[in-house]
Each structure stands twice: as C-alpha cells, then as structure tokens.
Design brief:
Blueprint: H1 2-15, H2 17-42, H3 49-59, H4 63-70, H5 76-90, H6 95-114, H7 117-149, H8 155-206, H9 222-226
C-alpha cells in the first residue's frame, strides 16, 4: 500500500499542475456521484408499489384514500400524483389550470433531480482535453530539452519527456471514463423518474372518480411537494 501511494505521488509530481487539476476534478465527480445516489435513495426512486395501489384507488373513486396512501411517499411520481389528486379534489383550479400547475411543479422537481449532472458531464468531457493539453505541454518541454542538448543528444532525454507527457493523457482518461459512466447512470435514473411522474399525472387526469364526496380535500403548497428533492 505504501509503495502504491509513493508511486502515485511520483506520478503527481511528474505530471505537474495538470495532474493536480485532474485530481481535483476526480474528487468533484466522486462527490457529485455519491451525493446524487444519497438523494435518489432518500427519494426512494427504486420504489413504486404504493403509487400503483393509490392510483388503483383513485380510478375506483376512492380519492381521499388514494391521497392518504401516498402521504410520506418519497418517490417524485408519488409526490406529483398526490399533488395532482389534491388539486383535483380541492377544485380550486379548473382542469387546464391544474394540468399547468402540475407540469410546473414536475418541472421544478426534475430540475432538482438533475442538479449536478451538468457538472459531471463537463468533467467527463473536459478531463481528456486537459490531459491532452498536459501531454502537448510535456512534449514541447521534451523537444526543447532535446534542442538544448545540441550535438550531445541523449535518447533518455526524449524518452523520459515523452512518458511524463503521456502521463497526463492517461490520467485524463482515468477521470473521464468513470465520470461518463456515472453521468449516464444518473441521467438514466432521472429520465425514468421523469417518465414515472408523467405517467402518474396522466393517470390522475384521465380517471374521473366521484369528486363530490371529496370537495373538502385540502390543497398542499407546491413547496411541500418539492421537499426532499434538495
């Protein structure tokens, strides 16, 4: 373990500032990935059984029971379905206004789910370019040293400069490959959550349960729907 750490330190010093920049980008990518996973786990993005049961109750005309079943549901689709149900039951807005309000809140929810993904995508795109920049700079230094040697050319000068130069390209790829995979994974999860939200809202609007008995249902503020998506 000690030798591996020492070897990494040697590579960092050989690669210069570019290596430290890539190390910082790697740390940022790891932080974003872990924080998004924690957020998704807290929102229970891999659940959905309660939502389907609640939508079944809604279709059968049991609006209040459906809303009650979704209380505390962390999945964005459950939160959007509950919000849409509460808006329809309260009858404070007509159907068109209700759809617009639900779409607005769903858009805000998706924005919060997607936060950080652009940074991850930028790291995945820029790290190979930064590594390549380090390689170009290293090659320039190597050939300058070769030129300065004049007639006393030592092949080790060139070979040593080349491997040090290529080190930053390798480091850039080491950062970019996991960052790209992490971005694709998280983006896929957000996309599935968005489709689930759209599906749940559509089911609420296409079903018409007996609303008369539920007119007293209380409308929940949009901020409460978004709670937990931070």
């Amino acid at each position: 373990m000690t030798s591996a750490i020492e070897q990494v330190q040697v590579f960092m010093e050989a690669g210069g500032p570019i290596m430290y920049l890539l190390a910082l980008m790697s740390l940022l990518a790891t932080t974003v990935f872990v924080s998004k996973l924690v957020q998704f786990l807290m929102l229970r993005l891999w659940g959905g059984s309660d939502r389907e049961e609640a939508l079944g109750l809604w279709r059968s005309g049991q609006g209040r029971a459906a809303v009650a079943l979704l209380e505390g549901g962390g999945h964005p689709a459950a939160a959007i379905a509950r919000y849409a149900m509460q808006l329809r039951l309260s009858r404070e807005l007509n159907d068109a206004e209700t759809r617009e309000e639900v779409e607005r809140v769903a858009g805000l929810f998706l924005d919060r789910l997607s936060s950080g993904l652009r940074l991850l995508a930028a790291i995945a795109m820029l790290s190979p370019l930064i590594g390549l920049l380090g390689t170009v700079i290293g090659m320039i230094d190597a050939f300058q040293a070769l030129e300065a040697a004049g007639n006393k050319v030592d092949p080790s000068i060139l070979s040593g400069g080349i491997w040090v130069a290529l080190l930053t390209t390798a480091a850039g790829l080491v950062v970019a490959i996991p960052a790209t995979a992490a971005h694709q994974l998280l983006d896929g999860i957000v996309e599935r959550a968005g489709r689930a939200m759209e599906d749940a809202a559509t089911q609420v609007f296409t079903a018409a349960p007996g609303l008369a008995q539920d007119r007293a249902a209380r409308r929940v503020p949009a901020a409460a729907v978004l709670q937990g998506a931070e």
